[in-house]
Design goal:
Number of strands: 0
Strand content: under 5%
Number of helices: 3
Order of helices and strands: HHH
Radius of gyration: 22 Å
Largest sheet: none
């Protein structure tokens, strides 16, 4: 049983956290390059949010949503 938990710890510490370790080391060498990764992530999230809101508006304009009180069981 102990080997299973050690295997999970190895997976997270030595394999899945490698990109974060690389970013941590990169920040010590070049702050601008490390933060560029962050800004790219923020831009991608803003674009995704804009696309999502656009799709929600399309469905709202087509009046496809059931807005009656019985549409959702928790509204009764």
């Amino acid at each position: 049983m102990k080997n299973i938990f050690e295997g999970i710890a190895f997976l997270f510490e030595e394999i899945l956290m490698v990109p974060f370790e690389w970013l941590r080391e990169l920040e010590l060498e070049n702050w601008w390059l490390a933060n560029t990764v962050t800004w790219i992530s923020i831009i991608v999230l803003i674009v995704a949010l804009g696309y999502w809101m656009k799709q929600l508006r399309i469905f709202d304009q087509n009046d496809e949503e059931d807005r009656s009180q019985t549409a959702h069981s928790f509204l009764k």
